[in-house]
Design brief:
Number of strands: 18
Radius of gyration: 23 Å
Strand order of the largest sheet: 4-3-2-5-1-6-7-8
Distance between the termini: 33 Å
Length: 532
């Protein structure tokens, strides 16, 4: 319970469903077509990809993410532009006034969810892309019905599921998967991401077949390939949106990418193939063919795992155009959207010297972020919100690829005098209380690395979040690896220390919590989203 009398995380739908249906002047759900996204990792990226593709096709798109990044209002956006701060404050005050008349008060997150849905409905969005806050079944966003007259939850995406929020949404992976599957709706389409945990996959598949049989897209059964397309070109002549130039992107999202890394996706030649793809290993009848059965999608978001997120987003979009009349979602529109997408705080490169994000944070596998990284490594910071063990695994993969690329570039330039030793990693980490720090650090830290433990500021409107003490982080880090660890009283002290470093033997990485990464963006005065 907060000082204002509002609860923080309180799972359950009774309060918000009553509020939407009986307290507001009208129920915003009666006007909304929704793409609902749950999972442990990848939810935000899938939401960003789906939203950008729909916007590129000319649709008015509302997006609601959780948690917010810098400010509470940046979680609520239309066409990727955050709701004006004054409008957010006005609606928040109005909703709290209405809520004050109720016996059972809304939680803070429930209030924000109501605000987002109301604003989307009043703004006449064509579709709302909604990210689950925690879990799924009892989450405040799980208020949408099956499709009736084209309104309701059209598609539910289940991203990779792993053990997170243990004890709150489940005590094991099966219970967590069951909770996240709770957003599924009878008669709607369900897109299931490739699941690394077999227990999660089997539980999700079981729930999907029970809830909406014959309307399930199992992404791992769909043929996709992560490839390089040297001469990749988007024909956007029939697309309302356009590929943004660097000058049109937010300062943190400018890029130098060539678009060479693509995901080659084969979509079913007929809607019936979706139905057949959900059945276990039966002989397939010959399907009528189309002139085109595959599309190359640019992968602008860095990280190997983004190919999986792009697959989920594509099949959700394909369902929208195939079954729900979103006919402007052409392959070209999806390509433009995927080319334009940027997602702050995930594998973001920052320049310490200039307090600005590095131009060109494309995947190190296809090209380095910027040639100067290998020459002046000490000037750069890689910031990523990895906050659980699976995300730590992916971050370490990206870091290892980056280090190999740096070594190759230095060798080509014959810069041996400045890189005679092995480049290691300086991990600037902060964690939310309750996270499995030992498991995360064990995945990240290797011999020769060092750890700087820092706190993060209290996130606004999230009183249930508390950061772990740097001393506790340091104790855990020493127990895991026995490496050198330092503690700092605040992030600014660590950043100032980094700014004073002139040796290029360490790659600086900030991670452990999205709230810590948000602090870095504040320290560098970077705005993640445009605001009216």
């Amino acid at each position: 319970m907060t000082a204002s009398g509002q609860t923080g995380v309180t799972l359950g739908l009774e309060r918000i469903v009553w509020f939407l249906a009986h307290v507001l002047p009208s129920d915003p759900r009666d006007k909304l077509r929704v793409v609902h996204v749950a999972g442990t990792n990848g939810k935000g990226s899938v939401c960003a990809l789906v939203s950008e593709a729909l916007a590129a096709a000319g649709y008015n798109v509302g997006t609601f993410n959780s948690p917010h990044f810098l400010e509470p209002y940046d979680a609520v956006r239309i066409q990727n532009t955050a709701i004006p701060a004054t409008e957010y404050t006005r609606l928040q005050s109005w909703i709290r006034t209405l809520d004050s008349t109720q016996t059972d008060k809304l939680s803070i997150f429930e209030q924000t969810t109501v605000l987002a849905l109301w604003w989307f409905a009043q703004s006449d969005v064509d579709v709302a892309v909604v990210e689950v806050g925690m879990g799924g079944l009892r989450d405040a966003t799980n208020v949408f019905s099956s499709v009736r007259n084209g309104i309701g939850s059209l598609v539910q995406c289940i991203c990779p599921v792993d053990e997170d929020h243990l004890g709150m949404i489940g005590n094991n992976i099966e219970e967590i998967a069951l909770e996240k599957s709770g957003i599924m709706r009878p008669g709607s389409w369900i897109v299931v991401a490739n699941q690394e945990r077999s227990e999660a996959f089997h539980k999700i598949r079981q729930e999907a077949h029970r809830t909406s049989p014959g309307r399930i897209i199992n992404v791992r059964r769909q043929p996709t390939t992560d490839i390089h397309v040297p001469n990749f070109v988007i024909d956007s002549s029939d697309v309302p949106g356009h590929v943004r130039a660097s000058s049109e992107l937010p300062s943190w999202a400018t890029f130098k990418g060539t678009g060479k890394r693509c995901l080659r996706v084969k979509y079913p030649p007929s809607p019936e193939t979706y139905l057949k793809s959900t059945k276990p290993k039966e002989p397939q009848s010959k399907q009528p063919t189309k002139s085109k059965t595959e599309v190359d999608l640019p992968l602008e978001l860095p990280g190997y795992y983004q190919a999986g997120n792009a697959s989920v987003a594509f099949y959700a979009l394909d369902v929208l155009r195939t079954h729900y009349g979103f006919t402007r979602l052409t392959d070209s529109a999806i390509q433009v959207g995927f080319q334009n997408v940027r997602w702050p705080g995930r594998l973001s490169w920052l320049n310490i010297a200039h307090r600005a994000l590095i131009p060109g944070a494309s995947d190190a596998r296809s090209e380095s972020p910027n040639d100067t990284v290998s020459e002046r490594l000490y000037e750069w910071v890689l910031a990523d919100g990895a906050h659980n063990e699976p995300a730590a695994v992916e971050l370490r993969k990206y870091v290892d690829t980056t280090l190999r690329r740096i070594s190759q570039q230095r060798y080509i330039r014959m810069a041996r005098s400045r890189s005679s030793g092995t480049v290691c990693v300086r991990w600037v980490v902060g964690f939310t209380q309750g996270k499995d720090m030992r498991a995360i650090l064990a995945r990240l830290v290797q011999p020769g690395d060092i750890v700087w433990a820092v706190p993060f500021d209290q996130p606004k409107e999230m009183p249930w979040i508390s950061c772990e003490r740097p001393e506790q982080i340091a104790q855990t880090a020493r127990a895991v690896s026995g490496i050198r660890v330092e503690t700092f009283d605040c992030l600014k002290d660590a950043v100032d220390r980094l700014s004073a470093c002139s040796a290029d033997t360490y790659l600086n990485v900030v991670c452990g919590s999205l709230y810590l990464v948000a602090n870095v963006f504040r320290e560098f005065q970077i705005q993640p989203f445009p605001n009216k």
